[in-house]
Please model this.
Amino acid sequence: MDHIGAEAARSVVLDLEGKPHPLETLWKGRAAVLAFVRHFG
Amino acid sequence: MQLHRIRDELHALGADLFIIGNGAPHFARAFREDLGITTPVYADPSLRTYRLLKFKRAAKDTIPSLKTYGAALRALRQGFRQGRVQGDAWQLGGVLVVGPDGTLAYRHASATAGDHPPVAEVLDALKRLGLKESVHLREPSGS
Model:
């Protein structure tokens, strides 16, 4: 299987308080289903 | 939002569900509250993750015209808020299934607005990872 590219894995998403998290933290230690939506509203 | 409805099934297969949107964090908060969901929600207003993951941008003719919003507007009057788009309207999304070691088990990049992967494909990808439900439940930082 492929792997998420390193650059994408290190790219940043913001939590609800605006705090940055590397994308890879979402699947660290446990699998993740990531649903990227078009926009919030 | 079909994936949100099968969140328990995803957990049973050893995965957590996260929603990422392209608006600002305060839009993400409102999105979560408006839908009454507990799924962790994150924001990428820069669209960098979308670009790096090669999600597509819509061509203008794939976005519904005002005429096609007629039925949607009627639904909106019945209980949904109508507001400005909260994020980049042209950015399309997708779904990834990622193993704990970064294995990309599944990728769906929406080709048009409303192009969502069949839930069965997402579940099959998780089954192929051969995971077991973890006793440890992480506290989602997007909550």
In short: Chain A is about 10% helix and 35% strand.
